[in-house]
Amino acid sequence: MRISVQREDFDAGAEIRALSRDSRVGAVASFVGVVREVAMTLEHYPGMTERALRRIVEEAGSRWRVTDCTVVHRYGPLQPGEQIVLVVVASAHRGEAFAACEFIMDYLKTRAPFWKKERGPEGERWVEARACDDSAAERWQPRIAESKKLG
Amino acid sequence: MKLKVLYFAALREQVGRDAEELDVPAEVATVAALRGHLRARGGAWAEALADGKLLRMAVNQDMAQPGAALGPGDEVAFFPPVTGG
Questions:
Q1: Do B8 and A85 touch (CB under 8 A)?
Q2: Average pLDDT over residues A93-109
Q3: Where are the domains of chain B?
Q4: Residue B78 pairs with which residues in a beta bridge?
């Protein structure tokens, strides 16, 4: 597992190739988040952010057979078109790689301490949390209840 | 009891500080009690930490519920719902 919270940009291709070398790996799923129209500054909570991301990846590893995983999230000022976040999940088969990658992004959106402040033509404003992000994360919850029941 | 308290994002701007060391009375034993203690400062604090404000809390860098207990030396953080990714 590699977790990095950094100012600098990342090379998604290089990160994907790095997780493809293991002979057990048959599938590598990845997600790249990109800044849309408006420039922004991303604030985070140094220490807790890395810790929260590590937990999320560990949780994914307890639900699916994940061979390896890389999460890179940037902070600081970002321009439209710039990459913000990268999740790469390597697994034996695509189903688990896709599911774990989506799960990690959904949880990251609601649990990792990052805050976006947009810089538009009318000045700066903090981005409000969206209810649809909460429901995206919640849809993974019944699995927890189920697995607890199964004990 | 000595605590380190951190504020992030919009909340940090509203209260005008990002961190402080506090020595709180023993009855400030939970995250919710600390929120009330800070709110009692009035002004921007009363507004930013008002009951109706949706805030997240962390104790020692783990997300915490309002009833979470506090201990000496704990790092407590208050912040708005997160918007990363």
A1: no
A2: 97
A3: 2-79
A4: B7, B57
